[in-house]
Design brief:
The complex is a heterodimer of chains A (366) and B (105).
Chain A lengths: L1 H29 L10 E12 L9 H14 L23 E5 L12 E6 L27 E6 L7 E3 L11 E4 L20 H10 L30 E2 L23 E2 L9 H11 L4 H8 L1 H9 L1 H11 L4 H28 L14
Parallel strand pairs in A: 1-2, 1-3, 1-4, 4-6, 7-8
Antiparallel strand pairs in A: 5-6
Chain B lengths: L9 E5 L8 E6 L13 E4 L4 E7 L5 E12 L2 E5 L8 E9 L2 E5 L1
The chains are: A alpha/beta (366), B mainly beta (105).
Amino acid sequence: MLVHRELLNASMTYRAQRSVIENRALQYELGRRTSARRGVITIPVVVHVVSNRNHPEQDISEEQIRSQFTVLNQDFRAANPDVDKVPDVWKPLVADTRIEFRLATQDPNGDPTDGIVRVVTDRTGFDHRHGVKSSATGGSDPWPSDQYLNMWVCQLTGGLLGYAAFPGQPPHLDGVVILHSAFGTTGTADFPGNPFNGGRTATHEIGHWLNLFHVWGDDDGACTSDDKVVDTPNQADANTGMPRFPRITCNNGPNGDMFVNYMDYTDDAGMFMFTKGQLARMNACLEGPRASFLAAAAMPALAQEATVGSAAGAEAAEKFVSDGDVERLLHDSERLTVEVLNDIRAVLDTVAGRPRGREARGGVRR
Amino acid sequence: MSGTVPDVVGVWLHSYEEDTETTAVYRPRDHPFRPSRRPRRGLEFRAGGTFLELRPGPDDRPREVTGRWRSEGGDRIRVAFPEEDGAPIEISVISCADGVLRIAK
């Protein structure tokens, strides 16, 4: 019962944090708040390479790791070589997010580092239950998540390509996890027929880390929910493989689904863009729950101090980011009201036996 | 739990590449699945009657939803979830042998 209560409390805390984060995102989306960020922000990253002792190829090379950073710094700057493949109708929406990534050069103790932690494990693979994020379960412990983006690279089971943590998750779970053969463009990712050899899994997962949702709204094929971004069309479900333009769903013609977006499920070779609306959500995230990264970039001296004690970093972030708390509280109540109404509607649908998805999935009928 | 289909006990992930028009194919979780950007749906039948469904989640992690399963006789299984997690589901087992679970679409 104690464990259950702890989980419930954790869930309630997470839900409350998510509500605040989503309220901020909504204000940016509506233009009621605008980003104060100028220039390019560079996020320090620690890459945890967790490899099985009998499979040394999983201990990927520094070259493969650096190839991933090349992709990230192209994709997030709209400098990817394939950006010209974006259909003409969406070209004006392409966003240079002014976010870059680099391997950390200083560890949490302030010592020099190459930003790569290598751990050999007896585990043959990790599933979606976060085991790779802890040395106690054969993985690698995270570095402070308010100072580093933690990126775990390992063998995943069940065909899993990767997964992410939205802002608001507990610090020990924060970061992204990527299958080693979908990480970067060389080494174990470089084999014939691999549709995930372009480094786009990390682009997609970091999109989640910056609070982006899937473009189809995770509504299981219905058209009732979207990604809370104005300039991405509502679409029914995920697109996979290499769709052909246009693909119409949810009455979203003539242009249809934006399957070329990094937040769809197409192959690496089929996704090329973030939109300006998605950038607004990323900015809301960077100036909200992930503001410590902006503070560290703006005030290097304080950032160094923060490597010794995270309290200083948090204080710096608090000072750097204008709060707007009164306005935020007003909009908190607005968003919470909408959420409660949606919950009530979902319960009524369930009681009335109305289906929430569009069709049966994998032989499972509702 | 009661019924005649105890051989489905285990953890099964959707091997959707093997689906046919009428059949969905599931394999044990340690099967060497091809990587998939869309997380594979999963069905876990526990001997005690607990059921765990893995549904694609918004952060690309399969989202675990717990329910209870029971045989309805013949090839049919019924799974009930807590109210907030959706309506009951029905599963028609076509076969379960040699590490392959086939159910009707």
